[in-house]
Amino acid sequence: MARLLAGLGLALMLALAACESGGSTTEPQFAGGSVIQWERSPQTVVFRADVEGGADTFLRGNDIPLCTIYGDNRVVWTNVLGEFNVQVLEDRLTDQQIQDFISYLTIVYQFFNYQSQADLLPPSDTPPVVETLYVAVSGREHKADAFSGWPPDYFETVVNACKTLSRAPVLVLPTAAWVTVREVEYDPSVPMLLWDGAAANLSLAELAAAGEPKWLEGQNVRVLWNLLRNASPITRFLDENGTYEVVVAAPGVNRGAPPPP
User: Which of 52, 62, 77, 89 is nearest to 227 (CA)?
Assistant: First the structure.
């Protein structure tokens, strides 16, 4: 087994050397002596399987990628239980698990042979929805998408491989997050949830008036998070005779969520 992993590591080193870097010219700071290394920041994305594109709406801020490995060895992924019923799970991986996963992704699945092609499509008002895979290890970044010509079951296989790295998953239920609210017109055709701002001691009208994300902590974050995970992605909230769209973005979970203040 050790000989097999050593061979995979050598092959990966050659593959990385042959591919072009899409990242910063600043040399990342790595720990350990493995060929497969990564920045250890909890905000660093080492691997991500995602579905990108489409209309850039306000509520897209609630999106969570299908599976992400972060620099602090956390793996975070979504588990769809049914319509409008999505679990968000996480676990902590060992260095060896991550190194083995990247090795097999590179050698067995030939990830670095596929390129990102979505940006070469003719321009349109709404970008196409596309499956994407991203890896950032050993000072190299590489991204590929479904327009690169990979096999029909390629993306699903890689996503499942990422999700099954976990041995002891736990449910993500953040107690702190960036909450952004904006007021919108009432539309009876859109799903609605009632929010009692007085009872919760959290007025959506006040958050909307702030006009920017606010870092919140406590039970209200958990409640809003849980409501959004079990509702239509276009759900709105009714509070104090107003209608609001709400985004709850947890660092290290939601795509693009900034770090804590």
Answer: 62
